[in-house]
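=== RUN LOG ===
request id: a7f3
mode: sequence -> structure
chains: 1
length: 234
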Amino acid sequence: MEYIIIIIASILFLLILKFAWNIKIKDIKKIKEIGFNKELNEITNKLPENKEICKTILKKLNNENVEIKESENEASFYFVLTNSILIANIKNTFSRVQTICHECLHSIQNRRTLLFNFFFSNIYLIYFFVICILSFFKLNFYPMAYLFILTILGFIYYAVRSSLEMDAMTKAKTLTKEYLQEEGSLSNEEQEIILKDCKEINKVGIPLTNFKLAFNCTWKIIFYCCIVALGTFL
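=== RESULT ===
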């Protein structure tokens, strides 16, 4: 019974966060529409290629030893173990400059924190899979203790990852503005248009990122409770 209560409480927790952060599906769709807006893309097409933009920004941040790679992946990211930035296929998105700025900012964050986030995230995920397997085969001798540890690990994961993401997201807009001004390919009017829509994306993107991180932690709790609760009825 207690696991059913925890499941309901977890769902209510997510609903409260959704309400508090004003997460709306239509806003998520709006971000995608803005990101692939043809008129905005025509403006940013005047800018250099993604790799060149990344090199310029890294130079501005005094961090030129980062390896830059490009791929057809959907997501761009900074990989701390190899000190490299992977730029996804974002050529046709007007927000590509802000995305690159975001990843470049990750590259200058505290290395200890970045490494901790990488290893801890994997430990957290492995622990989740292990306790789920144990519960599935009814080898969960201390299910409530496992759940307590899972919750604590989730809080730590959220706190560290959220701090890294929020730092990069809030600073990316300012860095984007500085890059556009210094690069000089766009007129002041075009820069204002780009920055205005970047602001719109951040307005939705920042709370949405926080919600996604909280959701990633909470669904694990719900899933584990479902397995344990189901095992008690079988």
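=== NOTES ===
The radius of gyration is 21 Å.
Strands lie at 67-70, 77-79, 84-87.
=== END ===
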